[in-house]
Amino acid sequence: VQLQASGGGLVQAGGSLRLSCATSGFTFGDYAIAWFRQAPGKEREGISSISSGTGFRYYADSVKDRFTISSDNAKNTVYLQLNNLKPEDTAVYYCAAAQLIAAGLLKLVPDLVDEKYDYWGQGTLVTVSS
Fold first, then answer.
1. Cβ–Cβ < 8 Å for 2, 122
2. Distance from C-alpha of 34 to C-alpha of 106, rounded to nearest angstrom
3. Helix, strand, or coil here: 96?
4. Distance of CA 95 to CAs 14, 105, 108, 129, Å?
5. Which of 39, 67, 87, 124 could form a disulfide with 8 if both were Cys (CB 3.0 to 4.6 A apart)?
6. Which pLDDT value is given to residue 49?
7. From CA 84, how far away is CA 54, in angstroms rounded?
8. Which long-range contacts (CB under 8 A, 24 or more apart) does 87-91 make?
9. Taken in order 18, 24, 28, 32, is the CA torsion positive or negative?
């Protein structure tokens, strides 16, 4: 299993970036892909997750209405569009994968916390200047 995050960079406040998470080695539709971020001196924070198999999308309050998660199933890639960036969005952004949880006929997305995600990409740095 591999995840490769990319797309970070330096941007001014109010600007935009698009992060990509290219995945391989597992059945894309059987997994949830999430984005986490870790700012300097702070704990890692889960900010968004998606399941192409169930149509599920989730956003943390800190990024809701500014960030958009999407997936390209043909490319096994998840994107995170970051709009209206703020200096407090400066962080290393990681993508991670977790297998969906079988619950009878349903498939559930794991909670957006570190310990629920088994596979991680290397991180990409987003720096927002004021």
1. no
2. 19
3. strand
4. 23, 27, 19, 23
5. 124
6. 97
7. 28
8. 87/13, 87/128, 87/129, 87/130, 88/39, 88/128, 89/37, 89/63, 89/126, 89/128, 90/39, 90/40, 90/126, 90/127, 90/128, 91/37, 91/38, 91/39, 91/40, 91/42, 91/45, 91/125, 91/126
9. negative
Tokens of 107: 């498939």
Residues 31-75 have pLDDT tens digits of 999 999 999 999 999 999 999 888 899 999 999 999 999 999 999
Q: Cα separation of 2 and 114, whole Å? A: 17
Of the listed ranges 1-5, 6-10, 54-58, the one predicted with least confidence:
54-58
Q: DSSP assignment of 3-47, as one string? A: EEEE--EEEETT--EEEEEEEESS-GGGEEEEEEEE-TTS--EEE
Give the tens place of pLDDT for each residue, 63-86. 999 999 999 999 999 999 999 999
For 87, other C-beta atoms within 10 Å of its C-beta total 11
Are the beta carbons of 35 and 102 closer than 8 angstroms? Answer: no
**pLDDT score of 102:** 86
108/84 Cα distance (integer angstroms)? 31
